[in-house]
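Deliverable D2.4 — example input (structure tokens):
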């Protein structure tokens, strides 16, 4: 049995609208047996689902490749659907049937294809209320048998579409967030089922969104001055081949609707009495509506959305409601979440129902909004009344919250059934899970995942609740590998890295946040900024993120596409200061929020030039590898050389002649080891000193954003795995589990967000949903469960399974859906025996390192005889097996003397 399944185009399942001219196709092999490898494939592409008109046929291609096959020879036309199917041959002489048929559909492939004009609200509308979203509408006639309807739309703002009274699509906060003048995503909707014979109407609700958000924290003015505007094109294809196009132009009308205000940070005010019933239907009378303004924003900036849209991903019910000591009625959702509340109520017309959202309660148990800073996170709904009650959910806003304060509801109206927490985030494919015998670690894992859910709304953000919610580059690079275990983040980062590139400065500098909304707004940020871009470890996202996507998904295209941006960042650093090989100038965030900082400072004690130079070396080493992978040999040699010089300069500057680091912090030792900046005796001494430093702090970490992601890797990788386990299991302050024992359901920004005495870290900056310290997830997957990509065979074509039992765990299990299929690594330890279950997907192989045993007393042949095992090598760390695809079970006696590694 062999089959090609899980067909994907550009990572996506039947995408509609993609605008790449060379789409890439991937599939998975499903088969029984061990050691299955694809030998050949055939792809067919057709314009009819039954393949009666094959447009392109690869023929039988001898190749193992089953991911990212570029369809270079296929001629691509705009707004067209392409069906594709695959069949495969394997190394066991088996031939599959044709796979099920999948498709992709193209969008607009060139700006000149757009016919529509941008429409903005008329000045009269804006005079009446500049905060309100605007409704736009037009009507059109349909006559004849319709074959297909597609809507192509976007906005400077955020929009929802309606056709004949029904919502179009299931996406929220479209078109997402980019640097709008340079890149603006459009969406494509299938609307065949919404069209009627006769008069139809299409309507847009347009809010301000990220385009005109006021970031109170950074500036008093919204980023954009020109009006928010919308662009829509409806293509109706009839059975007889006729095509009718309806698009935004001067004939459209606009008006106010029931939404008085809807703003990302502040929430929404909705007066249901002002609903314009039937406004997006053909029969509606719009004679009182205003004419729209046509604005000339052009079409050159339009791109199809590369990442998955924001959708409703979960719905949760409150676990209880209660009255706080100060008398507030509060719902407890049981989970710090991001999205909004949907609620039903039966109230008389004009009653105002208010929902205010907060993450935590204060030490007295009262509703606490201090850490939201200026963000209001408040919904005001004004009832229209009526016998049947009403239901509401907001539009162009989202809240980060666990607790909801209710006002305007009578006690008997607070029925938990009437309230639902609706969780919104980018709809990425779920890929990984981790579980182990320790419930606190499982809760930590849960919190990491909810940190991702709360902060992956079209861009990776630092926090989803206060008046900030920005795409901090540093946070993204710290968390990306953990995120890549939880979800397929390739489309998400492909999009964001292009955003980074277009916002990069001419000299290669990288803004602190992407999209860059902070430049020129530094006066109110509260930081001591000498510059408004290019901090080490933050700007390095330009290099680390594409590399991480390449490692996890074998995506060479992202390296090709980002190469100039990666190189520009390294060249920016190289041009700083007087010494080409050290980075000791400029502003850096340093080891942000580390515990060894001076009182009242956010910046840890590790010297910033130490961190900057260490990251300079690390990123340069990645750039050198990247250049070689994409065939730029000369560049590669140049950057390898640069890398060696940086390491040399680093050692000269920061290592004493007798091999001691000049900077005596945990983070300094972690970076020197993780980035391999020390070797030989110096390395040994650095490891030794790190363990002393940990002992001095009673085996608690002092690291901040920069050191924490690597701390446990360094320990586990240098013979101190027991110490790594000790750190991760600490439950007292400061530790990962401290917050878990304090009831956290997401990861906190500060180790001491909530202090031991019940008080909070200052209101100034205290997010309870922040993924940076969630980077420990990476260690749980890669070290405890042991699933590791191999950079020589990226995307899990070949990989390493090297679990490290320990951390006082009895068992652990991780699953990861790679592009090839599911990888499983689990182990179970009982007294002196250990068992492993491992699954390797078809068309891949793995090196499996079985720990806690050596060749001693074990007959290599026992392993050799297992079907699928290709080689067996005893090593210092255990037995190393190279295995082909299939499921494996290993069980053996632990060699006691190896237990303490
Ligand atoms: C704050 C947040 C964010 C961090 C910056 C430097 O805004 O903690 O995560 O990256 O500071």
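Example output (designed residues):
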């Amino acid at each position: 049995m062999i089959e090609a399944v899980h067909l994907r185009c550009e990572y996506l399942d039947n995408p509609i609208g993609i605008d790449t001219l060379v789409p890439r196709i991937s599939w998975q092999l499903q088969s029984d047996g061990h050691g299955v490898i694809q030998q050949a494939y055939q792809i067919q592409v057709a314009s009819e689902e039954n393949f009666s008109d094959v447009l392109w046929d690869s023929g039988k291609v001898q190749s193992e490749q089953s991911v990212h096959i570029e369809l270079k020879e296929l001629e691509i036309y705009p707004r067209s659907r392409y069906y594709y199917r695959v069949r495969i041959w394997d190394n066991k002489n088996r031939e599959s049937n044709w796979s099920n048929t999948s498709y992709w559909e193209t969008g607009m492939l060139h700006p000149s294809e757009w016919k529509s004009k941008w429409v903005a609200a008329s000045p009269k509308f804006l005079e009446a209320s500049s905060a309100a979203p605007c409704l736009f509408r037009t009507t059109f006639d349909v006559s004849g048998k319709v074959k297909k309807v597609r809507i192509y739309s976007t906005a400077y703002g955020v929009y929802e579409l309606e056709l004949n009274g029904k919502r179009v699509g299931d996406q929220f906060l479209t078109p997402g967030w980019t640097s709008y003048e340079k890149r603006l995503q459009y969406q494509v909707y299938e609307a065949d089922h919404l069209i009627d014979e006769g008069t139809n109407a299409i309507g847009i609700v347009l809010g301000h969104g990220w385009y005109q958000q006021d970031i109170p924290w950074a500036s008093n003015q919204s980023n954009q001055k020109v009006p928010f505007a919308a662009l829509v094109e409806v293509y109706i294809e009839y059975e007889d081949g006729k095509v009718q196009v309806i698009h935004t132009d001067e004939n459209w009308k606009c008006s106010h609707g029931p939404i008085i205000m809807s703003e990302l940070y502040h929430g929404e005010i909705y007066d249901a009495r002002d609903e314009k019933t039937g406004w997006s239907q053909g029969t509606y009378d719009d004679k009182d509506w205003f004419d729209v303004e046509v604005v000339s924003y052009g079409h050159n900036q339009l791109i199809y959305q590369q990442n998955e849209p924001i959708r409703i991903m979960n719905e949760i019910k409150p676990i209880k409601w209660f009255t706080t000591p100060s008398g507030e009625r509060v719902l407890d959702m049981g989970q710090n979440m991001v999205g909004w509340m949907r609620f039903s109520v039966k109230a008389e017309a004009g009653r105002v129902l208010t929902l205010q959202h907060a993450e935590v309660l204060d030490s007295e148990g009262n509703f606490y909004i201090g850490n939201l800073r200026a963000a209001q996170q408040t919904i005001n709904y004004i009832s229209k009344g009526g016998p049947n009650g009403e239901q509401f959910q907001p539009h162009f806003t989202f809240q980060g919250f666990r607790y909801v304060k209710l006002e305007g509801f009578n006690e008997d109206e607070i029925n938990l059934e009437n309230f639902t927490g609706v969780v919104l985030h980018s709809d990425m494919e779920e890929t990984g899970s981790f579980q182990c015998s320790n419930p606190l670690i499982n809760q930590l894992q849960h919190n990491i995942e909810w940190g991702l859910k709360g902060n992956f709304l079209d861009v990776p953000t630092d926090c989803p609740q206060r008046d900030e919610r920005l795409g901090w580059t540093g946070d993204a690079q710290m968390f990306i590998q953990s995120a890549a275990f939880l979800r397929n983040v390739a489309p998400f980062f492909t999009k964001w890295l292009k955003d980074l590139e277009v916002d990069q400065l001419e000299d290669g500098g990288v803004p602190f946040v992407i999209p860059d909304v902070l430049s020129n707004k530094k006066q109110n940020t509260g930081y001591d900024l000498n510059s408004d871009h290019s901090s080490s470890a933050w700007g390095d996202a330009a290099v680390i993120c594409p590399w991480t996507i390449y490692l996890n998904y074998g995506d060479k295209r992202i390296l090709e596409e980002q190469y100039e941006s990666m190189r520009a960042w390294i060249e920016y650093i190289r041009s700083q200061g007087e010494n080409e090989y050290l980075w000791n100038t400029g502003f850096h965030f340093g080891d942000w929020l580390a515990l060894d900082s001076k009182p009242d400072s956010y910046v840890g004690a590790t010297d910033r030039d130490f961190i900057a130079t260490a990251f300079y070396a690390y990123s340069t080493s990645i750039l050198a590898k990247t250049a070689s992978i994409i065939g730029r040999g000369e560049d590669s040699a140049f950057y390898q050389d640069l890398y060696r010089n940086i390491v040399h300069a680093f050692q000269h500057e920061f290592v004493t002649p007798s091999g001691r680091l000049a900077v005596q912090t945990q983070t300094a030792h972690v970076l020197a080891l993780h980035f391999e900046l020390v070797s030989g005796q110096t390395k040994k001494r650095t490891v030794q000193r790190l363990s002393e430093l940990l002992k001095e702090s009673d085996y608690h970490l002092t690291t901040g954003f920069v050191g924490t992601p690597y701390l446990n890797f360094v320990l586990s990788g240098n013979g101190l795995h027991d110490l790594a386990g000790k750190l991760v299991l600490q439950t007292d302050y400061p530790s990962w589990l401290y917050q878990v024992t304090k009831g956290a359901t997401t990861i906190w920004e500060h180790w001491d967000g909530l202090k031991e005495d019940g008080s909070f870290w200052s209101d100034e900056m205290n997010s309870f949903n922040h993924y940076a310290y969630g980077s420990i997830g990476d260690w749980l997957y890669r070290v405890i469960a042991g699933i590791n990509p191999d950079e020589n065979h990226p995307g899990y074509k070949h990989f390493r399974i090297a679990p490290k039992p320990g951390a006082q765990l009895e068992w652990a299990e991780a699953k990861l859906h790679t592009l090839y299929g599911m990888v499983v690594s689990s182990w179970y330890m009982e007294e002196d025996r250990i068992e492993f279950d491992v699954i390797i997907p078809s068309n891949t192989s793995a090196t499996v390192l079985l720990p806690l045993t050596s060749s001693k007393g074990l007959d290599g042949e026992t392993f050799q005889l297992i079907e699928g095992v290709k080689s067996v090598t005893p090593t210092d760390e255990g037995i190393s097996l190279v295995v082909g695809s299939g499921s494996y079970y290993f069980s053996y006696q632990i060699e006691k003397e190896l237990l303490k590694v």
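The radius of gyration is 29 Å.
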